[in-house]
Amino acid sequence: MALVGSGHGVVALADARRRVSPSALRHSVRRGELVRVLPSVYVVAGLDDDPATLRRAALAYAGPASVLSHLSALQAWEMPVPAGLPDHVTVPTSCRPRAVEPVRFHRSQRLSPQNRDVVERAGLPTVRLERAIVESWPLLRDDARRATAIVAFQRRMTTPARLRRALGELPKLPDRRPLHELVDLLEQGCQSMLEIWGYLEVFQHPALPPSRGQVPIQIGGRTVYLDRLFEAELVNVELDGRKYHSSLQDRERDLRRDAMLSARGLLVARFSHDRIVHEPAQVVAELLEILAVRRRQFGAPGTAGADRWAS
What we know:
- This protein is α+β, with helices and mostly antiparallel strands.
- It has 2 domains: 50-185, no CATH class; 193-310, Endonuclease, Chain A, CATH 3.40.960.
- The protein has 13 helices and 12 strands.
- α4 crosses α5, α6 packs parallel to α8 and α7 packs antiparallel against α8 (176-187).
- It is elongated.
């Protein structure tokens, strides 16, 4: 209907009154064309359970200076967030919207639609991804809180440096130390919970030589990333998650990749999620033997492999 056409399915009562008579508005509500989702905010029937429309309604209720933040901003950035959580909106400190379920309001001196920390996502003012990840940290638990930073890093939508900068902007953030530690692990090249576990329980073992995570190389005309590279020995360790090789196509893809890496002189050693998690000591022992054999093949314990890689 024309009443909500410019609002993408959302209309505030003040806007509606400027365009139609009170009786026409009441008639639309009685006929089920409009649904009241927040005080003085209506949406088109059928959109009253649409998350994106409800976020738009929350902004309409909070006023023109409001921005999506916290978990709602993560949803706008298409990050993995558990369903059924309240919407979060940040307003300037001068604004005091009346509390209403299921919206959570936050106040900030720094954030406004004109601020550099606010961008547009799907037509809505939204805090930057790094800020959303950091400020949502205390609102999530366990793997759910780590997933947003990991997925954003996997998709190359952010960097550890940008996350660290956002963390510095919120010095009173509760439980900040684990987030600092997660950013450190991302900086080490870890891109999944399995890689983080592997780094802490396997690759940091004092008996193993240094290795690098997520090392980019060019093969077959494209860039691929090695999970963990022991450069001197030219050994690439691939960590296969629980859902890996769920199809013959996945298996074929990895076999082709391993063959191309072998042509570059790399030995590929694959370890499953279960082995990394439940048999870390045995994985370390096998890696030590693999690396020792490679050094003997190269004829020297030093950087023979690295020299060949560089050539």
